[in-house]
């Protein structure tokens, strides 16, 4: 059976979150009954459920659903994967790019599954460090490659729109396992993704 990616919105959860958004909007001093805001609590409830759907998804199952026996022994890189997540401290977006590489060990994985697991872990309340680690661990534990590397570059709205208000800072996190712990392999990967860095 194909893996199911997004469940229907749960009616009860939608109603519960909607009621809470309604009172938050009122607490902010707005008139929730005016035309433009009438459906906002429900829209916001559904948007938030969409943005946190990763809690209900199993990244390892997604990888397992498309692993193929293959003797290819070189580096496979999928770079510039869009990341949209929510920082767990302020529930504001952070967004950027993920770059993933692995060296197969008897099995390759369907390429689209790498962006899919980025989404599974991004669509939660996150910190960039844990997001990086979870992607890395999932590939390492499921595919059991000779090595895996993950780099994420992201901008955090909580540092841009509020707080320290820095518009141009980019945070880079990375993790390396197996063959990528060797400096030459790691450098080859970093060189191959380097034109992605602005
Ligand atoms: N390490 C890490 N920190 C993050 C991430 N996203 C947001 N933060 C930080 O979480 C921290 C929370 O710090 P607090 O001092 O409790 O919150 P705050 O008073 O709103 O801090 P400011 O943002 O400095 O105004 C801030 O420094 C944020 O920049 C992330 O992905 N990783
Ligand atoms: Zn934040």
Automatic annotation (TrEMBL):
<dbReference type="Pfam" id="PF01227">
    <property type="entry name" value="GTP_cyclohydroI"/>
</dbReference>
<keyword id="KW-0378">Hydrolase</keyword>
<dbReference type="GO" id="GO:0003934">
    <property type="term" value="F:GTP cyclohydrolase I activity"/>
</dbReference>
<feature type="binding site">
    <location>
        <position position="90"/>
    </location>
    <ligand>
        <name>Zn(2+)</name>
    </ligand>
</feature>
<keyword id="KW-0479">Metal-binding</keyword>
<dbReference type="GO" id="GO:0005737">
    <property type="term" value="C:cytoplasm"/>
</dbReference>
<dbReference type="GO" id="GO:0046654">
    <property type="term" value="P:tetrahydrofolate biosynthetic process"/>
</dbReference>
<dbReference type="InterPro" id="IPR001474">
    <property type="entry name" value="GTP_CycHdrlase_I"/>
</dbReference>
<dbReference type="GO" id="GO:0006729">
    <property type="term" value="P:tetrahydrobiopterin biosynthetic process"/>
</dbReference>
<dbReference type="InterPro" id="IPR043134">
    <property type="entry name" value="GTP-CH-I_N"/>
</dbReference>
<feature type="binding site">
    <location>
        <position position="87"/>
    </location>
    <ligand>
        <name>Zn(2+)</name>
    </ligand>
</feature>
<keyword id="KW-0547">Nucleotide-binding</keyword>
<comment type="subunit">
    <text>Homopolymer.</text>
</comment>
<dbReference type="InterPro" id="IPR043133">
    <property type="entry name" value="GTP-CH-I_C/QueF"/>
</dbReference>
<dbReference type="GO" id="GO:0006730">
    <property type="term" value="P:one-carbon metabolic process"/>
</dbReference>
<comment type="similarity">
    <text>Belongs to the GTP cyclohydrolase I family.</text>
</comment>
<keyword id="KW-0342">GTP-binding</keyword>
<comment type="pathway">
    <text>Cofactor biosynthesis; 7,8-dihydroneopterin triphosphate biosynthesis; 7,8-dihydroneopterin triphosphate from GTP: step 1/1.</text>
</comment>
<dbReference type="InterPro" id="IPR020602">
    <property type="entry name" value="GTP_CycHdrlase_I_dom"/>
</dbReference>
<feature type="domain" description="GTP cyclohydrolase I">
    <location>
        <begin position="18"/>
        <end position="193"/>
    </location>
</feature>
<dbReference type="InterPro" id="IPR018234">
    <property type="entry name" value="GTP_CycHdrlase_I_CS"/>
</dbReference>
<keyword id="KW-0862">Zinc</keyword>
<dbReference type="GO" id="GO:0008270">
    <property type="term" value="F:zinc ion binding"/>
</dbReference>
<keyword id="KW-0554">One-carbon metabolism</keyword>
<dbReference type="GO" id="GO:0005525">
    <property type="term" value="F:GTP binding"/>
</dbReference>
<feature type="binding site">
    <location>
        <position position="158"/>
    </location>
    <ligand>
        <name>Zn(2+)</name>
    </ligand>
</feature>
<protein>
    <recommendedName>
        <fullName>GTP cyclohydrolase 1</fullName>
        <ecNumber>3.5.4.16</ecNumber>
    </recommendedName>
</protein>
């Amino acid at each position: 059976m194909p893996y199911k990616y997004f469940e229907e919105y749960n009616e009860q959860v939608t109603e519960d979150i909607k009621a809470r958004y309604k009172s938050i909007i009122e607490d902010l001093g707005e008139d929730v009954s005016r035309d433009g805001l009438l459906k906002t609590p429900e829209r916001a409830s559904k948007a938030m459920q969409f943005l946190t759907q990763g809690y209900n998804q199993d990244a390892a199952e997604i990888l397992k659903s498309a692993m193929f026996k293959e003797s290819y022994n070189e580096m496979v890189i999928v770079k510039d994967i869009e990341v949209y997540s929510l920082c767990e401290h302020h529930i504001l977006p952070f967004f950027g790019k993920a770059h993933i590489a692995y060296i197969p060990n008897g099995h390759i994985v369907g390429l689209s599954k790498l962006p899919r697991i980025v989404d599974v872990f991004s669509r939660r309340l996150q910190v960039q460090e844990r997001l990086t680690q979870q992607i890395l661990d999932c590939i390492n534990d499921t595919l059991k490659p000779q090595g895996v590397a993950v780099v994420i570059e992201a901008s955090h709205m909580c540092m841009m729109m509020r707080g320290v208000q820095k518009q141009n800072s980019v945070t880079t996190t990375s993790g390396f396992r197996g063959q990528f712990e060797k400096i030459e392999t790691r450098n080859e990967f970093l060189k191959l993704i380097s034109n992605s860095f602005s």
